[in-house]
Amino acid sequence: MLKGKTIVLGVTGSIAAYKIANLASMLSKLHADIQVIMTQNATNFINPITFETLTGNKCLIDTFDRNFQYSVEHVALAKKADVVLVAPASANVIGKMANGIADDMLTTTILACRCKKIVSPAMNTNMYENPIVQDNIEKLKRFGIEVIEPDVGLLACKDVGAGKMPSEEVLLDYILREVRFEKDFEGKKILVTAGPTVESIDPVRFISNHSTGKMGYAIAKVAMQRGAEVTLVTGPVDIEPPRFVNVINIKSAEDMYNAVVENFEKTDIVIKAAAVADYTPVSVADNKMKKKDGDMSIPLKRTKDILKYLGENRRADQFLCGFSMETENMLENSKRKLEKKNVDMIVANNLKVEGAGFGVDTNVVTLITKDDCKELPIMTKEEVAAAILDEINI
């Protein structure tokens, strides 16, 4: 995923330094070239050999270390870096960065870097809230350095408050947003729907489907990583929403319809990946009365057709993509849906095909447009998401 990308991790003197070993391991599994620079104080919290073992690269500490192939090391590494993450970032190093002080290998390299720089402060609450530290953080932001807000919680010193470094997964998401993809969707606004809808029959029963939201969430995540401004309208699911995405939680098909209509006009691309319940009870109150009288039948009415509305009300410059989940006659039904709903692309899959459908991390889809029909092999849902976006960006 990150092959050919150079990630520089700057580790400073904080107890949170141990978390970066796990982050380095995660990046290594994604085939990134990981270069770790430590301050001298950081070596009191974690041994450089740990990072050298995980990354396969020499851990840099001393600006004047001669034990490497000759080059002006801090300049060479600065030119090579695709992104720099300083985590944990101590108050001391934040102050140096904010004021252009370069008196060790880490601060010297940072000063020479032209790539994106991200800082994750980690320190005692009183230090973090000190006006001088806060002023230095604001100064970093003015210079274009992204600052990850620390978590609030129990710190190593047993104080409770802001200053805790976020999890390795959060730090990884910041790195992936920056370097995983080229930003070919920058400036585009994308609306994605995902997950099931839930239609209440009475206080106990409801109508829904088996959608887990994984495909829609993958599309939202990859679109965000490719630079788009993403709004995700999602039914109830059991997965974490992607970071850096505007999430609108809904429950019923009516809720989803209203959310889509409200946001439709301001979007460039709409990808409807949600599995909306086709029917909803006519009246929950009526059902309660019928049940009381011993009548267990449930009068139903069709939910509003979101894709049909989009096709009828689209602008000429909008791109519409729908999904078609079939169990038979997949191509014929999907092509008919493409024309009937007036959309640009249908992503079709057969729920009977192994590796496709609900609840799995893979999918097998066919991308159908007016002029083409492209069958894709079994892929992860994030790979499918990238393929869908590739087709839209043609």
Protein described:
The chain has helices at residues 18-29, 48-55, 73-80, 91-98, 105-112, 125-129, 131-142, 168-179, 214-225, 253-264, 284-292, 306-313, 330-341, 381-392, and strands spanning 6-11, 33-38, 83-89, 116-121, 146-147, 151-154, 160-164, 189-194, 199-200, 206-207, 229-234, 246-249, 269-272, 279-281, 300-302, 319-326, 345-350, 362-363, 366-368, 373-375, 379-380. The chain has 394 residues and is an alpha/beta fold. It has an eight-stranded mixed β-sheet, sandwiched between helices. A five-stranded parallel β-sheet has the order 2-1-3-4-5, with helices on both faces. A two-stranded antiparallel sheet has the order 6-7. Helix 1 packs parallel to helix 2, helix 3 (73-80) packs across helix 5 (105-112) and helix 4 (91-98) packs across helix 7 (131-142). The longest helix is centred in the first third of the chain and has 12 residues, at 18-29. The model has no long low-confidence stretch (mean pLDDT 91).
Considering the chains and any ligands shown, give keywords for the structure.
about 400 residues; alpha/beta; Rossmann fold; 2 domains; eight-stranded mixed sheet; 14 helices
Strand order of the largest sheet: 12-11-8-13-16-17-19-20
The CATH architecture name of the largest domain reads 3-Layer(aba) Sandwich
| Overall pLDDT confidence | 91
Q: Given the C-alpha coordinates, what overall shape results?
A: elongated
Q: Which fold name corresponds to the CATH topology of the largest domain?
A: Rossmann fold
Largest sheet: 8 strands, mixed
Number of strand elements? 21
Give unreliable regions as ranges: none
Q: What is the gyration radius calculated from CA atoms? A: 25 Å
